Amino acid sequence: MVQITVEGKDRQSFECGSEDTILRAALRAGIGFPYACNVGSCGNCRFQLLDGEVEHARQDAPAWTESDLKRNRYLGCQAQPKNDCRIKLRFDESFTPKITPAKTQTTLKEKNAITHDITEFVFELEHPNRFLPGQYALIGLPDIQGGRAYSMSNITEDGSEWHFQIKRVPQGIATTCLFDRVDIGDTLEVDGPFGVAYLREDSPRDILCLAGGSGLSPMVSITRAAAVSEKLQGRQIDFVFGGRASRDICGQEILAELPGFGERIHFHEAISNPGPDDADWQGYVGFVHDVAREIFGDSIRDREIYFAGPPPMAQAVQKLLFNLQVPPEQIHFDEFY
Ligand SMILES: Cc1cc2nc3c(=O)[nH]c(=O)nc-3n(C[C@H](O)[C@H](O)[C@H](O)COP(=O)(O)OP(=O)(O)OC[C@H]3O[C@@H](n4cnc5c(N)ncnc54)[C@H](O)[C@@H]3O)c2cc1C
Ligand code: FES
Q1: Atom of ligand 1 nearest to the CA of 194
Q2: Which residue from 108, 95, 82 is spatially nearest to 21, judged by alpha carbons?
Q3: How far is the CA of 37 from the centre of ligand 1 (A)?
Q4: Is 89 part of any domain?
Q5: Distance from the CA of 124 to the center of ligand 2, in angstroms?
Q6: pTM for this predicted structure
Q7: Do 26 and 84 have their domain in common?
Q8: End-to-end CA distance of the chain
Q9: How many angstroms does the Cα of residue 332 sit away from the middle of ligand 2?
Q10: Which residue from 184, 217, 224, 327 puts its CA 20 to 30 A from 268's CA?
Q11: How confident is the model at residue 266 (pLDDT cuts 50, 70, 90)?
């Protein structure tokens, strides 16, 4: 263990193990260290190293630039300290974990195909831990450096099972391993929960969930939790799911099992690139953000909004919400890298 001291007006110290990163050790110590992706892509966890030595787990982290190196800046989610360090960063209370993230071994119990390229993976945790609907975990895969981020799709009281709905990426290193090499009964390491795009049960607003492709999982978890939340019983929940073609569309059967489906929970489906196989398509045609605008118009502004999906979708939704002047505190999202 080495000691990390954060300088500044909120001076604090915490311990970091040799296998951990500074960000994750800080979160385990209950410190509000700002972050988003946990995999070196967003840059939100950047800090300045004042003293000591760190090594980046991921040397080619996209968010780490030459100029960062010159200014002694590192990414908290990748920085592994070699000795005691002093660092500079600004805490943010909103990142203080509500549930302490922890590493545990997990066993794969089930693999259930949802579409031609999305599968639900059900893991049983050796050391159960809870999570908030909408949060994600880092899954360690055999012979692959660095954990990959995946959002949970279930809701759980005791934290013994975490379910993930994962989209296979053609030629993707991590998903090829997960889909083709990891079998029922295999054990993997899972670290979490992480993320702040979780369900706000204290919100007085109706809910809008927007999911594109791989963004299904956290939106399903949020909808499942909102459906049974006593505090949210009076709220409408609209779920817009988008894919390229009809074979990519899923979600309705999952939500149809929820109490209030068809009454206060509504599913809307959209495809962006209809082809010859989509001649019978009855749903919307267009991108998720355009379809949401078409269905809800300016009333989007009155919603609590959750969204998840690939970067182009996340950026388009952000732009729409900015143009509609939706207050930032009503917007909760994970950008998938
Ligand atoms: C917060 C968050 C939640 C997500 N939730 C989901 C989900 O619920 N379902 C889903 O299908 N996808 C989700 N993703 C996307 C997922 O994490 C992977 O990016 C995706 O599965 C890519 O798989 P691949 O096979 O292409 O992986 P790879 O070919 O291994 O690489 C693709 C991604 O991994 C990153 N990467 C490469 N090397 C490293 C390394 N050493 N350490 C860490 N990252 C590295 C790359 O930057 C790239 O973004 C989420 C992403 C994030 C950030
Ligand atoms: S780069 Fe570290 S959290 Fe995204």
Answers
A1: 1
A2: 82
A3: 9
A4: yes
A5: 27
A6: 0.97
A7: yes
A8: 31
A9: 17
A10: 327
A11: very high
